[in-house]
Amino acid sequence: MSKSTLEDRLRRPEETAARNTRALVVGPYLSGRRGEDLKRSRSPEARFDEAVGLAKAIDLTIAGAELVNLSEVRPSTYLGKGKVDEIAAKAKELDIGLVVMDCALSPVQQRNLEKAFSAKVIDRTGLILEIFGRRARTREGALQVELAHLAYQKSRLVRSWTHLERQRGGFGFLGGPGETQIETDRRLIQERMIRIERELDSVKRTRALHRASRSDVPYPVVALVGYTNAGKSTLFNRLTQSRVLAEDMLFATLDPTMRALELPHGGAVILSDTVGFISDLPTMLISAFRATLEEVLAADVILHVRDISHADSEAQSADVAAILAELGVSPSAGKVIEVWNKLDRLDEDRRDALRAARNGHAGEPIAVSALTGEGLDLLLMAIEERLAAGRALIDLDIDSADGQGLHWLYENTEVMSRRPAEDGRIHLRLRVAPDKMARVARRFPNFAQA
Predict the structure, then answer these.
(1) 3-state secondary structure of 300
(2) Is there a contact between 22 and 98 (Cβ–Cβ < 8 Å)?
(3) Comparing 3-135 with 217-388, is the CATH topology the same?
(4) CATH superfamily of 217-388
(5) CATH hierarchy code of domain 3-135
(6) Residue ranges of the alpha helices (H) in 225-367?
(7) What pTM, to 2 d.p., does this model score?
(8) pLDDT tens readout for residues 9-57
(9) Neighbours of 124 (CB within 10 A)
(10) CA dihedral over 61, 64, 65, 70, signed as positive or negative
(11) Architecture of the domain delimited by 392-449
């Protein structure tokens, strides 16, 4: 039995449990936010639609959904008493087993709402953790999700959503005789977190070695980042002719994927697809996935992919910029290229306006459709131009019999063009990274600046 088939079989019980769970999604949002840029603040309706999409991402049966405008947050139940009673009546009427609250609940608020609703309650953080747990395919991804899940549990010292927990993940085996449950939970959670962190440290060292080995050959890394469902995986597949999972679904991609990509003038790069970002991404998830996201930090070029057709594209962009800043990447850094994706979803007038706005100027967003391929030639040229910044362009004639030297140049420089010279030699135009220039000059002192 293949590994993927085994994983699918292991996931079936929890998927069945999710489909058999009647869920009520509640979007409680404070009205009249102060001091926010309205263009970049997400509308309650858009936030609510996203919350419903998150719940659907793990196959829950959505029996009802309700958007709630709040004037203030109540310390004990988050919602006002009247609204709690109203939702409790609705939960009973619809036979609700799970209430999804699109907010961050304290342990006290969660327990009080569970008593009031007579149903399990999960907040936004818990829901995102459950989605990440479902999407993880690699051992590293599973460890990262488990670490974040345990950090979440430790902050509450209670088990969350036990009827949907994976029996293979270790989340549901806390407790034992001889100690109170809360003491046992605290001790075992901490011990497991320490073991996972050690394993992830090993992963981090392995990744560092892989990056070091890649730095020995001229393959720059281009990383895709962006809001979840912005079309990163579709763009990745279109550029590399791969078949990475790409669906109209939140967090379709969790584990990073890398493929080689050839640029217009023959140079090669490594393209990396990464996990999507989302507003209010749990802090423990950012921390747990830092080893994976270090691929973004080490990238030579970062493509910030935006769904330009989305009504909240500006707000999504601000959320991505905030997470990048937390990772130590400035959105205005010279290695970030903004990619406006999903042109195919716009009407002709808006598409023409976007094309006219770009005009091919360096540093401006590149408008593309990963689905149809429109604009990808401009994107590849922009990547090439960004990589060329700071790299020397040189001309070199080499003896056609010097196969070893020619091989060395292909391994250590970017060969932009190659043609026979008049004297039977080979004329090369090369692009050389600053850290390789001295080695090229020592080995081929007869080069000339292009």
Answers:
(1) coil
(2) yes
(3) yes
(4) P-loop containing nucleotide triphosphate hydrolases (3.40.50.300)
(5) 3.40.50.11060
(6) 232-240, 283-288, 290-297, 313-327, 348-358
(7) 0.74
(8) 444 445 555 667 899 999 999 876 544 444 446 789 989 999 999 898 8
(9) 23
(10) negative
(11) 2-Layer Sandwich (3.30)
